[in-house]
Amino acid sequence: MNKIWISIFLAVLVWSGIQPKDYLTWLLETIPAMIGFVVLLATRGRFPLTRLAYVLILLHSIILMVGGHFTYAEEPFFNWLKTVFDLERNNYDKVGHFAQGFVPVIIAREILLRKQIVNGRRWLNFFLVCVCLAISACYELIEWAAAVLCEQGTEAFLGTQGYVWDTQSDMAYALGGAICGLVLLSRVHDRQLNISGVR
Question: Residue 147 pLDDT > 80, yes or no?
Fold first, then answer.
């Protein structure tokens, strides 16, 4: 986590908070990124992450902040895709839920490997996928709680766009993201862990 990373994060956060579509939605969507930022600042001295993990966290934070600014249902580029391909809904939220598996799987992988919590790659991969599904399920419960407590103004946060299976498909995208993250990034991640001398 260096000055460039911090500068990009703060610049996008500030941009996203300037006249967003809805301030409550912006807060609900960006607060995970802000909490993550604080946690990373607090732990960077005693438990610095690999470059790969920091880059992925930044990308995920940007996805959250863009969604917070426009709302997931009205993100402009995916509205354009919706029109061009005659889709029924804006699918930007699926990018966010895919990232909800793709990014945490590497963070959890790094913690479990460095702390030597799980022995054997098969068990490691199984637990990593379980962790990502648990994160996704928790997020869906948070969305449900926000809808119940706030009653009005949470439709943009939920982003269901009338799709009855939205919750289930969100978790499926997170599952797919976690599996893709493991398949595509495990070797790169292993090399970075070896370089930093933690394995």
Answer: no
